[in-house]
Amino acid sequence: MDRFEYSDPRLAHGEEFLMRENGVKLYDGDSKTTFEDGELVVSNARILWGRPGDIPRGQMCVCLPLFYVVLVEEEQRTFSFSSSRKFVLHLSESRQGKPQGPVTWSQHNFIKISFKEGLHNDFLGLIQNALMTRAWERLSVAPPSASSSSQNVADRKWRSGIVGIERKIEEKHKATDESISLAFQDLSRLMNMAKDMVAISRSISTKIRDKQGDITEDETVRFKSYLLSLGIDDPVTRGAFSNQTEYFKSLAKQLAQMLEEPIKEVGGMMSMADVYCRVNRARGLELLSPEDLMSACRLMSTLQLGLCLRTFDSGATVLQLSDHNDRIIIENTAVALEESGSLSATELAKILGISVLLAKERLLTTEKQGRACRDESLEGIRFYSNLFLTKEE
Amino acid sequence: MSEIEWPWQYSFPPFFTIQPHAETKARQLKAWHTLVLNYFKANNLSSLDIREAHQSSLFNNSSIDRKLPPEGILLVLEDLQKSGNATPLDKTRNRWLVYWHTLEEWAAIIYSWAQANGFLNTVCTFFELVSGDDTNEQEFHGLDEEVLLRAIQVLETQKKAEVIPIDDSHGVKFF
Fold first, then answer.
1. Which residue ranges does the record assign to the GLUE N-terminal domain (chain A) (predicted)?
2. Could you tell me which CATH number the domain at A5-138 has?
């Protein structure tokens, strides 16, 4: 009933009169109201109800815009001697900013119209026809622009109330579900494709090897570098090995091969975090777990691959060149300390372009050999040349 | 308080952090050892409370904003104790007596003075020893009475002297 609004009974421009009945009573849901024995006028845009004689005189009366009406049905007549007929009008949600009406709030989403003195027109047919043509969209009584026709459709779809909310939630769940499964579908497809890609790149590289004479050396190198930039051309994967040790062994070999150059570049030592990132970046899709990486790296020293795993006293673990020499590192660090007087791990890291973790390990190793001494203060820990041992008393 | 000439270590920040490297630490403690005794001698001090040590510029170099932490001071004092230059006065090892000469050295110095100046077999009060005109030129002039008592007690064990209680203070008879 709260969809009703006060209105001028005169028809707007373009609004068409459809029917008129007397002795009409309105119900808010199933409950009776004070709107009894009135006059009902139906236009192609609204349903008007007024006290007898009000409408012809053009006095204010109540009206229900037809855009609220979702469904009209006739209530099954119970056994009765009267000629009264009742119709149920299901309504959509009340709109924001609607003009004032006789009722501000109602718990019902439908009204009933009872024709006490019989019905001389085809009310049902006329209303349904009016709903079909949607004449209000062309008239000034049309709803504010915000409520476009699409929203009208949505309004019809979504009944309010708990059922409506539940349905909305269910629909949302469904949509999320679908999008998730869609996403994973893509991923698995990608993985399948990756295997193919690896196979292709492998076959191409063997072909290159076979036809070594046909294409120039330069082209071969260029092509191989393309393949490499895609990732490792043939990653060692667990699936290819039945035996765990064999898997780790070949993994260790491959890792040693690909990491030796980069480790040389960064000064003979690389933290495990960096190793992990580099390896998996190169592998692209057949990613390696940290455990597998560690297991493979532990094997490196026994396999004599030129690299070995080293754990510092602090617990930091690095991969370093087997011929990596602590003495040289200490010497270099000591020289750096002499040059700058004092250094924090961060400063040394900046100078050498290595990670702070490694810089700190360098300083600690140097200290352990008595070539540096520390200064712990509120600002953190700094290292100095060990003047205690070098300076004359 | 008379300022002493600070060694180069005093303005070297790592001096105020106990070094983990064994050899470095030994050198560091040796430097502290010398510095503490020089400082105590120059200022004629004899006792130290670790809880208040930060007020003294000995352990607190405000110009480089570095302090030797209490654990470090304890370490230095324990090092001094090993060489006989310090004794803790309480069980918590917060209060210490520090001697820039060991008690044995003090005992020898005092006894040789008594010998040289004919004070054997006579009784001297502690006041005469540390504040009397006869000892003006002596190193132990102005020495803390507590330290003096301990030095005389060393002489006692060597049967070279005997402590005699006089009122609130003590006297000593040299043999």
1. 1-143
2. 2.30.29.30
CATH class of domain segment(s) A326-389: mainly alpha
Residues of chain A with pLDDT under 70: 78-83, 139-159, 183, 186-192, 208-209, 211-242, 392-393
Spell out the residues 6+ positions from residue A8 whose beta carbon is closer than 8 angstroms to its own.
A58, A60
Q: Do A387 and B16 lie within an 8 Å CB cutoff?
A: no
Domain B103-174: give its CATH architecture: Orthogonal Bundle (1.10)
Q: Which fold has domain B8-98?
A: Arc Repressor Mutant, subunit A (1.10.10)
Q: Where are the domain boundaries for CATH 1.10.10.10 in chain B?
A: 103-174
Q: A238-321 has which CATH code? A: 1.10.10.10
Q: Is A341 on the interface with B (CB under 8 A)?
A: no
Output the DSSP codes for A322-377.
TT--HHHHHHHHHHHHHHHSEEEHHHHHHHHT--HHHHHHHHHHHHHTTSEEEEEE
Measured between beta carbons, the chain B residues lying within 8 angstroms of A382 are 13
Query: Which residue type sits at A305?
Result: L
- Cα of B51 to nearest chain A Cα, Å: 19
For the entire predicted model, the pTM comes to 0.51
Could you tell me which of A47, A85, A86 has the C-alpha nearest to residue A67?
Answer: A47
Please name the amino acid found at residue B20. P
A384 vs B13: CB contact, 8 Å cut-off? yes
Here the ipTM equals 0.78
Chain A residues touching B9 at Cβ < 8 A? 387-388
pLDDT digits (tens, 9 = 90+) for A247-256: 888 888 888 8
Q: Chain A residue with minimal CA distance to B10?
A: A388
Q: Which of B9, B14, B24 sits opposite A375 (nearest CB)?
A: B14
What confidence tens digit (pLDDT) does each residue in B90-145 have?
888 888 988 888 888 888 888 888 888 888 888 888 888 888 777 777 778 888 88
